[in-house]
Design goal:
Elements (H helix, E strand, L loop, with lengths): L5 E3 L5 E3 L6 E9 L6 E10 L2 E8 L4 E6 L6 E4 L2 E4 H7 L2
Antiparallel strand pairs: 1-2, 3-4, 4-5, 5-6, 7-8
């Protein structure tokens, strides 16, 4: 039996859930070296459409702002440094 792809909003309006893209993602955070606090995250979505967003904390929610990205960008992964392309290649 096929599950319904429709949903009802809080106001009672019926909406359909339609797949737009699928793929891999990488999310990393930016840490202020002076304070040690996280300032924002970057979310990179790799699918048919390649997109990136800065995720800015705004209290209880996060604001997603479109951002550019480079697959050659390096990030710290534990004690190692890896670039985004290598991290995505590790994902099955």
């Amino acid at each position: 039996m096929e599950e319904s792809y429709e949903t009802k909003t809080k106001s009672g309006k019926i909406e359909e859930r339609i797949l737009k893209d699928k793929g891999k993602f990488v999310r990393y955070t930016y840490i202020d070296k002076a304070t040690g606090k996280a300032t924002k995250d970057k979310l990179i979505l790799i699918g048919k459409d390649q997109k990136a967003y800065f995720m800015i904390p705004t209290g209880e929610r996060e604001l997603a702002i479109p951002a550019h990205f480079d697959l050659g960008t390096s990030v710290k992964d534990g004690e190692m440094t890896k670039n985004i392309k290598n991290i995505l290649d590790e994902i099955k």
